[in-house]
Amino acid sequence: MRLEGKVALVSGGASGIGEATSRLFASEGAVVVVADVNDDLGTALQAGIRDVGGQAAYMNLDVTDETGWRSVVVETVERYDRLDIVVNSAGISVPGRPPAEEQTVEGWDAVMAVNAKGVFLGTKHAISEMRKIGGGSIINISSVYGNVGSRGGTAYHASKGAVRTFSKAAAIQYADQGIRVNSVHPGFVDTPMTEGLHSQPGVRDERVGKTPLGRMGLPKDIAYGILYLASDESSFVTGSELVIDGGMTAQ
Ligand code: NAP
């Protein structure tokens, strides 16, 4: 019970890495607010967590909408009295995948809105509630593509690089208030986001080939790292970037 007594909000919490995180947090004793645009998955996950004795509530949230963030944070604190942990996992990739010359402005704006602005808003609106309880932990999901480049992907890389440096800035700004901010950098992980891409044999083989541990990541591989950063075990960790990529970027 590494999160006993804590209240956590997970954006993009209904699917993939967010879903694995929501389930793991609940199993470690947290009350979990699953915030997502996917109402079907979110409602099903709320029921699934409650069925096994966990505490969870699904709330609809579009992370690009500041009014929505305000409402979800207010509702969380009204229901559960506090907010200890925010995981900003909501993200999109496809409109941000082309190389620079082919990247549309619409695709750029869409990806930056969810992946960069969404993380900024999730951090911004957590701070006042965390300050009230003397601290908290914010975990922003970047990517190895926030650290290195690749042949495919323009806005996606830019958005994940923004998450990386923004997290360090926020870590410094709020360290004296006990609010920790860290980024997590997954490598290639099998989730609904990557299902189409990873089902193409060429892509799958290339990505596994680039990964020294020789397999795709699983959502729970990332969730365990997020759990460490959310728990008090990481109380001396802020402004750091946790790479979980099977060794891909160590080469
Ligand atoms: P996923 O399975 O697609 O989960 C993302 C969730 O976020 C989905 O439920 C999605 O809803 C939701 N979402 C999309 N736009 C939203 C918005 N505006 N407001 C609120 N929720 C929104 O993806 P994932 O692979 O778990 O990715 C989670 C995070 O990890 C993302 O930030 C991603 O960039 C990052 N990441 C993933 C990988 C990987 O290989 N999978 C690698 C590195 C980093 P819909 O399904 O309805 O769109």
Task: Quickly list its features.
251 residues, alpha/beta, 8 helices, 16% strand, binds NADP nicotinamide-adenine-dinucleotide phosphate
Task: Give the SSE layout.
Blueprint: E1 7-11, H1 16-27, E2 31-36, H2 39-51, E3 55-60, H3 66-80, E4 85-88, H4 105-132, E5 136-141, H5 155-174, E6 179-186, H6 195-198, H7 201-209, H8 219-230, E7 241-244
Parallel strand pairs: 1-2, 1-4, 2-3, 4-5, 5-6, 6-7
Helix pairs in contact: 1-8, 3-4, 4-5
Bound molecules: NADP nicotinamide-adenine-dinucleotide phosphate (NAP).
Q: pLDDT below 50 for ≥5 consecutive residues: which ranges? A: none
Question: How large is the share of residues in beta strands?
Answer: 15-25%
CATH domain class name? Alpha Beta
Name of the CATH architecture = 3-Layer(aba) Sandwich
Shape: globular
Structural class: alpha/beta
The figure for the number of domains is: 1
Q: What's the arrangement of strands in the largest beta sheet?
A: 3-2-1-4-5-6-7
CATH superfamily: NAD(P)-binding Rossmann-like Domain
Note the gap between the termini: 36 Å
Largest sheet: 7 strands, parallel
* Ligand list: NADP nicotinamide-adenine-dinucleotide phosphate
Mean pLDDT: 98
| Helix content bin | 40-55%
Number of strands: 7
What's the helix count? Answer: 8
Task: Spell out the helices and strands N to C.
Answer: EHEHEHEHEHEHHHE
What does this structure look like?
The protein is built from eight helices and seven strands. By secondary structure, the chain is of the alpha/beta class. The chain has a single domain (7-250), classed as 3-Layer(aba) Sandwich (Rossmann fold), CATH 3.40.50. It has a seven-stranded parallel sheet, sandwiched between helices. The mean pLDDT is 98. The chain binds NADP nicotinamide-adenine-dinucleotide phosphate. Residues 11-12, 14-18, 36-38, 41, 61-64, 89-93, 114, 141, 143, 186, 188-189, 191-194 line the site of NADP nicotinamide-adenine-dinucleotide phosphate.
